[in-house]
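Retry 2 of 3 after timeout on previous attempt. Resubmitting structure tokens to design endpoint.
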């Protein structure tokens, strides 16, 4: 873990959520994505730092000092802010613009692609997968002798995180898109509570699998090689319902 200073722009805000620590005290965490001319990183705000999310709008220039850099389980870098970190909105210095995502067809994707945009039709939707995470730090929990444990926090009632896989087709190729937590919620138009309910009653998810078929989406994210299946997959970090007229206008301009 190292300390980080960062000048960037806000690109996407997620919800703040409250949680209870093992000792019963209340905690709070919120996160958002920022980008600069090199790429996108997730900023995780703990405690009172989470209040700053209320002041953010897309494109807000900001400066971060004293954040801690961690790599999350999906291989993405995250910057965690605690009480001693500083987040300054609209700093006096010049802040670079966000690197825009490069549009690629699914066939053009290569395993090192980051910050790319793909557009296609959902042709298959799979059941959500759930996994136990630490309610305090969000790390995936390990089961040890029937107890869910986090390396840093103990005696836990696990929280649940989830992912949804879909197959996307754009006429050039058909690939699997992996949507974690917030992205799964955006794709399905569901809240965290609704997602968690599918874990207990998986049969209630069935109608969604057909409702989404034929819907067009635009995803921004990165390509990743699935070595087990020897194929490229796409990990989405932004989900947008495709605007068909907008897309046709783009094609006509080319
Ligand atoms: Zn933990």
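Retry 2 succeeded. Sequence:
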């Amino acid at each position: 873990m190292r300390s980080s200073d960062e000048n960037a722009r806000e690109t996407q805000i997620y919800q703040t959520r409250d949680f209870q620590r093992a000792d019963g005290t209340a905690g709070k965490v919120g996160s958002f994505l920022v980008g600069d001319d090199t790429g996108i990183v997730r900023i995780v705000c703990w405690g009172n730092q989470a209040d700053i999310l209320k002041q953010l709008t897309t494109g807000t220039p900001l400066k971060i000092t004293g954040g801690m850099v961690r790599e999350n389980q999906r291989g993405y870098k995250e910057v965690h802010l605690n009480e001693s970190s500083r987040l300054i909105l609209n700093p006096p210095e010049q802040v670079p613009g966000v690197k825009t995502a490069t549009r690629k067809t699914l066939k053009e994707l290569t395993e090192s692609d980051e910050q790319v945009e793909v557009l296609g039709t959902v042709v298959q939707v799979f059941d959500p997968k759930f996994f136990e995470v630490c309610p305090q730090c969000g790390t995936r929990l390990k089961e040890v002798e029937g107890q869910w444990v986090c390396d840093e926090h103990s005696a836990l009632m696990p929280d649940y995180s989830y992912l949804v896989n879909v197959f996307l087709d754009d006429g050039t190729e058909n690939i699997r898109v992996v949507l974690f937590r917030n992205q799964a919620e955006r794709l399905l138009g569901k809240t965290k509570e609704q997602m968690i309910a599918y874990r207990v009653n998986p049969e209630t998810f069935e109608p969604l699998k057909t409702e989404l078929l034929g819907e067009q989406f635009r995803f921004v994210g990165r390509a990743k090689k699935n070595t087990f299946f020897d194929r490229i997959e796409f990990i989405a970090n932004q989900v947008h319902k495709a605007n068909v007229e907008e897309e046709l206008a783009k094609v006509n301009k080319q």
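Attempt log closed. The pocket of zinc ion is lined by residues 134, 136-137, 139, 150, 152-153 (CB under 6 Å).
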